[in-house]
Amino acid sequence: MAGDFVKHKKDSDMMSVWSYFLVAKDGNSAKCKRCPSILKTLGGSTKGLHTHLSTKHNIKVISASTSQDTENLNTAPPPAKRKLDDYFTKTKSDDDNLDDVLARMIALDGFPFSVFITSDNLRKLLLAKYTDLPKSAVTIQKRVMNYSEK
């Protein structure tokens, strides 16, 4: 089996993951030089090799593409991540808007439409402030969908 693996052309480059592996003659797998592990490299992918070195041997190899990505990150600020609640309107009257409350509870808190119908306690709580609470899950779904289009 050892004869089926040969040195990769980048074997002498210590910045290459291939300095830690032998490549199979067919190019579809690699054998770790530090342990008996054999890993797949189908299509030339080295992600598994990097992961193996990192998790099994605590070795990080910084490839040219990784260092290029790092350079790009240093020159340009990362795009701002948007939160789900950024898509909701924020006005002073939001506390008085049933559609906004329903949409937030469904989208942000993960409530199903039906819980507003089946939960007596939730209905009592909402009815204390909102007299127009729908009586069907389909109606609540329509109101939330209409609200999302605004």
UniProtKB/TrEMBL annotation:
Protein name per Swiss-Prot or TrEMBL: BED-type domain-containing protein
InterPro entries in UniProt: Znf_BED, Znf_C2H2_sf
SUPFAM superfamilies: beta-beta-alpha zinc fingers
Transmembrane segment boundaries: none
Keyword Transmembrane listed: no
Keywords for the protein's UniProt record, in alphabetical order: Metal-binding, Zinc, Zinc-finger
The BED-type domain, residue ranges: 12-64
Pfam families hit by this protein: zf-BED
Superkingdom field: Eukaryota
GO terms assigned for molecular function: DNA binding; zinc ion binding
Keyword Zinc-finger attached: yes
